Model the fold of this input.
Amino acid sequence: MRYKNATSLLARARQCIPNGVYGHFRSYAMTSTTSFGIPAEYPHFLDRAYGCRFVDTDGNEYIDYMCGYGPAIVGYGNERVDAAVVQEITRGISYSFPTPHYLELAETLVSRLACADWVVFALNGSDAIQLALVTARAHTGRSRVVATNGAYHGNQPWCSKGLGRVEADRSETTFIDCGDLDQLDEALRHEGVAAFVVCPYEQLVGLPNRMPDTDYWSEVRRICDQYGTLLLVDDVRSGFRLHQAGSCAYFNINADLVCYGKAMANGYPLACATGRAALMAAAERIFVSGTFWGFAPSFAAAEVTLAILSEADNMGHLATMGRQLTDGLTAAASANGFRLSISGPPALPIVLFEDDKEYAVARAFAQAMAHRGSFIHPTHNWFIGLAHTAEDIDLTIEHAQGALAKMIRRGI
Ligand SMILES: Cc1ncc(COP(=O)(O)O)c(C=O)c1O
Done:
């Protein structure tokens, strides 16, 4: 694999875009690496994508296990989704009013999703969560929020740390350990808390992902009820990959507000906050607006995406492909003397190496996998999509065998 074009595009990008690229992938462009950094030799610019594959600007083709960080759930360039979008585009794109698709999608979501009596749309998960939080504050008349350490809920100041973010941004937020019911009780007991914001399971970057204990969610509900705090579930990442009615249906969570994004429109920008009927009045009183929030093609894309997800045993396919992948990787690793730590649901596995403190082994593996034609992330969870087939997974396991054998030869 060669990355000649990627290297020069990245150099150009750095002249006019801070770091050249955003998010996790920016660390390559930074002079100092971060522990979550990606490998040095890696694709950076994409030329085209189809099914579960993409081709980078150097013509290298990969089986993609990131699916655009989740969205491409039914596959890149899915004909049915794209046909609906093209039809919509011929009528227009962004207007002063929503189209009937907006309403039809809202009806579909309300009838399908767990805990949802109403829905408000936005274009990304961060905004959807912010809308849900504002609704919780409007309903309770309280301002404080409790969230869990290390969880990512998007780019909004109330949950973000780092350079340029100030303490005041998070002055209304208390962070507790995910899964710790005593800490939750303590945090809600002493402060009037509007909402406990939490993901359906602990899905941290660079760490094993933990599933909730059996009685965790019923206890969370009990504690929230005791102190009049609303339960706001962030299903932006895992939504539509575990259960077509959302992860609350999968884990039997009785939430007040639930947010979705990423996979709901197969890559067309769309997210939403959903809520219980009792919160409808508050949701009607808050100000909701975004210039592009009526982007008609996304509603058309979401309707078809959700229809596809509800067909046959498509949820089962995601889990089956995920299990085939992680079983194969485990076998390849042990045959080559590596010990993997695999966690998370099969459709969103996180694959780490044991005793790999600086993620050096994970990075070397991701790079060697990219060279062979499978694209994975060294520290973030991966995403399985409906376009992955058993043959794709077999090929990736072959890539893993070659990658791990080469790492041994190089003494990694
Ligand atoms: C759990 C979770 N919540 C919220 C977000 C923010 O979504 P968006 O990037 O669409 O703003 C993300 C994005 O990665 C996420 O993983």
Notes: The first strand starts at residue 46 and ends at 50. The pocket of pyridoxal-5'-phosphate is lined by residues 69, 124-126, 129, 152-154, 199, 234, 236-237, 261, 271 (CB under 6 Å). Residues 314-335 form the longest helix (22 residues).
